[in-house]
Amino acid sequence: MSLKKLFLKRNFTYKLYLYYNLYIRHKCFINRSQYSQWGEDLSILKFFKDKKNGIYFDVGCFHPLMYSNTCLLFKNGWRGINIDINPTSIDLFKILRPSDLNICTALNEYEKEFKVYFDHPFSPVNTLDKSFFDSNKSNFFKDVSFKIIKSKSIDEILNLSKYKEIDFLNIDVEGLDLQVLVQLVPNKLKPSLISIETHNVDGSKSKDCDKINDYLKNCKFYAYKRVGPSTLYSN
After folding, report:
1. Does some domain include residue 212?
2. What is the value of pTM for the model shown?
3. Residue 234 pLDDT greater than 70, yes or no
């Protein structure tokens, strides 16, 4: 058994590993010019310029530092809501962003249980989407496990928070981006900027790319910039 797996087995050593991950492995005390995988956060910060005290809503937040589209905003005084289906992700956020609302849940307007295809506690590809799992299991999910998670409605999450208006919406939910988007925009949230994955890493369109673009056009959001697999939409 690896040291990592051994540490994750016990509550005390699990907490030690969380701090190791943040302070040793990812050196959270060192400020960086960017945290996003493809530099999305630089374009996001430029869009909002000198706006302070903004609010973000991050669905599929994964990690408070690694690949984060909201970390630069956080370091510039922003706060917000972070949602992920992985409890370890939320535990990491609770350490580094204790003033945010950090919730382990899925989003659904009706109370419902979902099956999670779980790669491992520090994986960016844990998903609710069976088709995403099927198409990626040859590269990931070597020790796949299956978990059940209960959903929360958007209104329930907003009521738990102190935030009334959202400035920036980030969606990265491994195959279900469109389904999450239509639940949120425009009836529940009206952000100034949305980041959502529309392409694959190789540059090809994702399965819902055109549907996302058409839906957002109907909601009066237009492509501001594409950065890597993500497209930023502004209203």
Report:
1. yes
2. 0.92
3. yes
